[in-house]
């Protein structure tokens, strides 16, 4: 009985380590996107996406009307790569990864800062595909709000 128990523990730990390695490889693509934003490196950001990736934003306007706005990956890459004032910093936390074969999704809370100045917060929802070149983001949808943000102290850059 003891050898069988040891074998089960070994198989379970091997499976968990493999899953963790897969999750980390998915997270690395997301981290690459945010590091590229911080550096203003559109090439680094572009490498995180499929060439035809879609981007969306969900928000509520001043009239409290819910909106879904389609963005443009090319416009985003141009904005990242064009010299701009301040560093775009988007720290994330509560990162959840789900994987089934070559499909993954990442759901994470974020806060967006221009240098140390808070801009907005929300959730990023990534859909990723694993092809011959590794994991790539094929869809990114985010929510945005300026109020009611609960940002962990270790993430906050300035006190509100």
Protein model, in words:
The protein is of the alpha+beta class and 160 residues long. Strands 1, 2, 3, 4, 5, 6 and 7 form a seven-stranded mixed beta sheet that branches.
Helices and strands in order:
Blueprint: H1 2-39, H2 42-46, E1 49-60, E2 66-70, H3 73-81, E3 88-89, E4 92-100, E5 103-114, E6 117-131, E7 134-143
Parallel strand pairs: 1-7
Antiparallel strand pairs: 1-2, 3-5, 4-5, 5-6, 6-7
Percent in strands: 35-45%
Beta strand count: 7
Low-confidence stretches: 7-18
Describe the main β-sheet briefly.
7 strands, mixed
CATH C-level: Alpha Beta
Give the termini separation: 59 Å
Mean pLDDT score = 89
CATH architecture assignment name: Roll
Q: What is the name of the CATH topology?
A: Nuclear Transport Factor 2, Chain: A
What features would you highlight for this structure?
160 residues, alpha+beta, Nuclear Transport Factor 2, Chain: A, 7-stranded mixed beta sheet, 3 helices, globular
In brief:
By secondary structure, the protein is α+β, with helices and mostly antiparallel strands. It is 32% helix and 41% strand.
């Amino acid at each position: 009985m003891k050898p069988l128990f040891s074998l089960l523990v070994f198989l379970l730990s091997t499976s968990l380590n493999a899953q963790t390695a897969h999750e980390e490889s998915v997270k690395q693509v997301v981290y690459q996107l945010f590091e590229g934003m911080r550096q203003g490196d559109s090439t680094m950001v572009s490498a995180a996406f499929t060439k035809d990736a879609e981007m969306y934003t969900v928000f509520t306007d001043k009239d409290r009307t819910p909106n879904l706005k389609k963005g443009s990956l090319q416009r985003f890459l141009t904005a990242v790569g064009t010299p701009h004032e301040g560093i775009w910093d988007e720290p994330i936390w509560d990162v959840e990864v789900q994987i089934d074969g070559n499909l993954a999704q990442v759901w994470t809370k974020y806060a967006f800062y221009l240098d140390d100045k808070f801009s907005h917060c929300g959730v990023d929802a990534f859909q990723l595909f694993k092809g011959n070149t590794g994991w790539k983001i094929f869809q990114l949808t985010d929510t945005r709000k300026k109020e009611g943000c609960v940002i962990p102290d270790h993430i906050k850059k300035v006190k509100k």
